[in-house]
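--- STAGE predict ---
source: upstream dedup step, 1 unique chain passed
mode: sequence only
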Amino acid sequence: MQVIKAGAGWVAGAALAAAGVVAAGPARADVSDSSSETTGSSIALEEIIVTARKREENLQEVPISISAFTPEQLRANTIQEPTDLQYHTPGLMMRSGGGARDSLDYFIRGQGTTFGGGPAVVTYFADAPFTAQGAARLGDNQQFYDLGSVQVLKGPQGTLFGRSTTGGAVLFEPARPGNEFSGTVQVSEGNLHYHEYQGFVNIPLLDDKLKIRIAGDSVRRDGFTRSLSTGQMQDDRRTDSFRVGVSFTPVKWFDNYLMFQNNKTDQTAGSVVLLKVNNALPLYNPVPGLTPYGPTGGAIVGFLCQAFNPGNPAGAGACFAQRTAILAQLSSQLNAEAARVAAGGNAVRDNQTSVETQLQGHTQYLNDILSLSATDLPYVGDVTFRDIFATQKNYGVENLRELAGGSAVTHATVVTTADVINWVPTYTPTSTGETHWLDDFSEEAQLLGTVDGKHHWILGYYIEEHKFNVGDPAIFSVVGNVTSPVLTAPTIASQMVGDSLDIVKGYFGQFTVDLSDWVLHGLKFTAGYRWSQSYMRSLNLKGGYDATGTIVPNATPGGSCNCTATQSQPTLNDQAPSWNFGFDWQATDHLLTYIATRRGNKPGGVNILPPVVFPGLEATFAPETLTDVELGVKSDWTLGGHRGRTNADIYRQWYNNIQRTEFVPNPVNPAAPVQQTANIAKAVIEGLELDSIMELTDHLSLSLTYAYIDPRYTQWPGVTAPGPGVVGGLPLVNSPFPGTPRHQGTLGLRYSIALANAGELTAGADYYRQSAVQLNDQALADANVVPPTPGYGNLNLRLDWANIFSKSIDADFFMHNATNNVHQVAVNSLWSSFGFISAIYNEPRTWGIEARYRFGAAAHQ
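--- STAGE serialize ---
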């Protein structure tokens, strides 16, 4: 492994490693009987079972950096939604993506969803990738109840999982049906009129052969931000979800798990706060004229008003006066709001909107996991065939939100899930993304086995498919719609897409050989390989308004529509390998060391070409690849009579063929260079991770997590382009990595005490701290108009009272963000195009109380 450069972080890491301190994460497991749910939050250093390698293993014996959480740990740490995982998982960073609070981007070791590309970290639910379009629009908080486990796998994945990734995978596993009748009912109340009702019931039906588990969750909470222009309260929460799981095991060698989940959302969109206004943008200038960056808004409006009113000078004049007044009003309101936000105060999360935002949707999920087992087969040992199938149905998502948040005049108002009929945005089944079962599906077939009880192997095939017939274009209301024929009609910002098909395939295998009998006791060798294929096709239909003000394909001037003419989008058909090679040594029963090198990839894609193609344009771009080397240690230890557990790793990653945007000179129109995505950058990423826990006394435990990361580009040709409000000429190779704080860590304390016959009382506190982080993908191109989000801390508190007076009743008090810290969780930049940068801020201090009643077998745990 190449020597990692020295620095303050690495010096600390070396010292920790020398002391036997090493990384993987809080312990989490796949629980064989998910109905077993213990109470209290005492530290337990007993064996933790995980399934990261597709079989049940002790966390401390798995040579992978993992953060894992049992249901008890999720509850004890008040991990109530995915964003809470960041506070307990070294190396994980969360960002709200696409200008929506609940649409989450996961970043692991510098890898995430950036520059409009695909995810580098894939989330799984019930062993299937959680990639449905409707789910992406609704966010991914609705699965966070009645979970059997959560696992965060770090680094490239692919030889064991459906999708190959460069960053990692996050596995959400719903609790499976158990063999005993049991259940819980939980009621939560808190500030902001927070109400949540949650529970499950587990029912064995046929002598352990047929088991069913039904769970549900309903959340209501008032918003904590206000639109100062409409008075609407934003960032509320209104979600309802239920899940039904059925396990059927008629004979020992046959097991089938079928899961159905139904989610509904009906709430407002999140508040987006205006930070900066680009007053150099010509579009904001109502005075007719020409600038080095194009005509002013007044000039554009003057030209269009004449076109909208042919032969009618009076009408054109009235149109010009009305629309330039709107431009002036917009500019004035944006600057006033930016000044208000810059002044700070308690209302920094509030904003200005031109509409009342909304997020409504209904999605359903169906997963089936079939397992067939055979034992003692010649040469291959114990063998299991497993098939994992998942499909989704989307009943439509209505999403109306704003990206600027700075004016009562509509500007950067996103109505992407709407069509336009008679010049008015209107929701239709096509525009809301309504799909049918099997339009989105994934299937993974695995054949896995164990030879002589110690050598393990797996072979697999994976396919994922997404298709739709017609996709409406993205539509935005910008600058008060002054460039549209009618002021109610938004701008068409992209082409329509038809006959779209996206397929991802993978063929993979991996084996682990125990070398104890031949080389060294406890030494194992692992090798895995995967071949990934991506196929993508679609037709681009140039959408436009017809004479009635309805968006139709290939609308032409004058209102006619040639609906059969299409522009073919290039077909993508690429391949890429992934691999995993490593040695691990179980030196003692309580000490594991390992070294591994892996490669993962992110699929390529297609560029939308202009009508006239010229040299330098690329129809497609290739997959990104990331190769790493990781060295890790996992240790259970005793020091001065105090037990502890420490897991740590250091790693180096080589990130190649990075997909980034570039501008190609246009010989047809030199003033309009063509933007495309190309594989033009390279980077190196180094880091370390630590996770440790120690019993200080019989009642008090201390936990510590820490992550250090140093990412840097080594190649990215070119410089930033000059533009309105931007000087240009900055080397792109100096671009920061978004979503990647250099330092982050959490210090936790737990104190538990038995109250005789009154139950058990546990008090806990977790303080998370991270350094500054850049959340803006375009930070360098925007000349750092908005600086990185400063470092911040977050304090969470919890008090649990379990088995109250020896009854199967538990109660607790929790408080998130106890210090009421304010920081950004997303930055949206449209600086050079629509003239602003905005942000989403974290939630304020929230608190609540929970009461839980356990019955059946759960009452005795």
